[in-house]
Amino acid sequence: MDRNFYEFWGQLFLSLAKGQKQIEDFRKWFGQGLMGYESLNAMFRKAYGLDRIEEESPDYGEIWKKSVETFQKSFQEGLSLLDVVPRGEYEKLAQKCAALEKSVAEQEETIRTLKRLLTEEANDAPAAAIEDLQKLLRNQQDQFQELLKNMTLLFDKAPEAVRGVRKKGH
Questions:
Q1: Are 5 and 76 contacting, i.e. CB atoms less than 8 angstroms apart?
Q2: Distance from the first to the final alpha carbon of the chain
Q3: What are phi and psi of 120, to 5 degrees?
Q4: Fewest C-beta in 10 Å: which of 84, 89, 114, 170?
Q5: Distance CA 168, CA 161 (A)
Q6: Torsional sign, CA 89, 38, 35, 49
């Protein structure tokens, strides 16, 4: 964090000792991108040396922008040191968490429904399996009967074929 940041905070804390209103003003000022509250702007300009540059100067806007970025970066670093999360970041995470909790609840309901369906199918499965097995056995029996019938026809014709082969071979 930069030296100007500490100087600003030192002045702000001295000012805050005078009353609660400055805390509310600071929160609004920071939320507005360091714009608005002239007493805070004056403190900021002094801390970052902007009070020594004419506001009409062509470089003033760029220097102001760079000072604001430096201040905001230092502010975030300061919050991190204190293990504090900015409200905007907290709210974003809270929304993400709520969305994930909703998603988890929906997935859990889906899992419960699928488990119930699987249990119902498992209870119905033995009857269906037995029916399928009976169909398979009937089909095999029919096919076996057809095989026996064809074999009988073949063997009925076979003696004539065998006799014909013997005559040709002798």
A1: no
A2: 117
A3: -65, -45
A4: 170
A5: 11
A6: negative
Rounded Cα–Cα distance for residues 154 and 97 (Å): 78
One-letter amino acid for residue 117 of the chain: L
**For 6-32, what is each residue's pLDDT tens digit?**
777 787 777 766 666 666 777 677 766
Residues 6+ apart with CB under 8 A from 51: 42, 45
Tokens for 33, please give them: 């991108």
Q: Residue 122 carries which side chain, given as an amino acid letter?
A: A
Q: Which amino acid does the sequence have at 7?
A: E
pTM for this structure?
0.40
Q: How many CB atoms lie within 10 A of CB 65?
A: 10
Task: Judge whether 15 and 22 are in contact, CB under 8 Å.
Answer: yes
Cβ-in-10-Å burial (0-12, 13-18, 19+) of 134 comes to exposed
Cβ–Cβ under 8 Å, residues 11 and 47: yes
Instruction: State pLDDT tens for residues 89-99.
Output: 889 999 999 99
Two tokens, residue 165: 């082969």
Q: What is the DSSP string of 19-81?
A: -THHHHHHHHHHHTTS-S-HHHHHHHHHHTTGGGS-TTSTTHHHHHHHHHHHHHHHHHHHHHH
